[in-house]
Amino acid sequence: MARPFSDNSGGGSALVDALREAVGPAHVLTDPGATAGYRTDWTGRWTGTALVVRPGATAEVADVIGVCAEHGAVIVPQGGNTGLVGGGVPREHSERPQVLLSLRRLDTVGPVGGGTLLADAGVTLAAVQSAARAAGLRYGVDLGARDSATLGGTVSTDAGGLRVVAHGSTRAQLVSVQAVLADGSIADSTGAPPAGLAGYDLAQLLCGAEGTLGVVTAARVRLLPAPDHDELPVLVGCRDIAEAAALVERQRSYGRLLAAELVQAQTLDLVCAARGLPRPGPLADWPAWLLLEVEGGPDLPDDERPAVADARVWAYRESVPDVLAALGPSHKLDVAVRPDQVAELAAALPRAAAPYPVHVFGHLGVGNLHVTVVGAAVTEDVDERILRLVADLGGSVAAEHGVGVAKTRWLPWSLGSAELTAMRAVKAALDPHQMFNPGVLLD
Question: Which of 349, 250, 226, 361 shows the shortest CA–CA distance to 298?
Fold first, then answer.
């Protein structure tokens, strides 16, 4: 028989009873079997003990925060649970009871107007995109996990996605937010005219804060005009990553660059085998493959290199995370360097990851790379060696996936003492009792 929450978390029945009163008994999950899917992250690397609370409205989120404050509990906000750095699941060890606040029931998509869309935090990215298309517009952020990743989650980590090179990250799309703060108050600027916002920009402060300053319950995002016609993506072989980076730069001066995604040949080979996709060319002869979308079509070298122009080539790139996950336990590192440094970093990664195989893919147009080191015995020493390479290049040890609990110790390699001091001051001011996602972003 599964133990009740009070037996394995220190939360106590009074906390559970108060939360049930706030959101209804059906939306407070205490049985370990029922909470397992929420408590463990997508990678399987991070897990902890918590009860799960599923509010259905912003007012209920405020009530939950009030209950947690009264009972000394901490709150871990969660969207679609597609994170890779342990920031959306409870901590393995906690002296205070942990409440995982699932926002999936906040799933209303509001009307489109003035070139913006208002949606709840639990709305999936796919639903946001669908609503934008229905209005003859489009949303600039797109991820392979669009069917499960939520708007609130992408705001939390300032996700970039597949077309970040063209439209910028989530921060560039964000107009305003509705959020619940540590005292239970609701800050809501989503109804304000865009030109009427004044003072500190709370939306921009909460974007990328990884749930450490408050709980975003809704967001108004900027939409883009729909293109006259969809550009045909091209998957093109390159002799090395340096050539791929040069080819990206060539597109910038030729036309508007909409996407520039890198996949190494060894990774592409795995994707083809796992998904039954045809190999786009002799992979042994072309170690780097570049998926390009350019307004008006790409400007490719006039040679015999393999290049496949077909809307279906996105399947090669979007299949990479799941195919690599199927290889077994791994460490997934999300980093950023200047685009002209990607080749240097990629060349050094095999030695840093040795003796484990390493796969590199990602957003070459902005230098945001996803590094996967495969092996059950991979340790944080390997992570540290890789992140040291990134830091030595002046890059960032974290990018669109966030810092989470995975990289807090290494964040000072990318941020100076002044920035970290300012961040701690903001955290202390908005969350004085360390209730929101403790251990995430800042140690």
Answer: 250
**What CATH number is given to the structural domain containing 237?**
3.30.70.2190
Residue carrying structure tokens 């409205």:
57
- Reported as a single tens digit per residue, the pLDDT across 266-312 is 999 999 999 999 999 999 999 999 999 999 899 999 999 999 999 99
- Of 175, 199, 225, which closes a domain? 225
d(CA 101, CA 97): 13
By CB neighbour count within 10 A (0-12 exposed, 13-18 middle, 19+ buried), where does 97 fall?
buried
Residue 272, Cβ density class (10 Å: 0-12 exposed, 13-18 middle, ≥19 buried) = middle
Whole-prediction pTM: 0.93
What is the distance, to the nearest Å, from the Cα of residue 304 to the centroid of all Cα atoms in its chain? 37
Alpha helical stretches, state H, 168-283: 170-173, 202-206, 241-252, 265-275
Domain that holds residue 125: 109-225
HSE at residue 290, side-chain half, CA atoms within 13 A, is 29
Residue with tokens 């009264």: 70
Within this chain, do residues 311 and 342 fall inside the same structural domain, yes or no? Answer: no
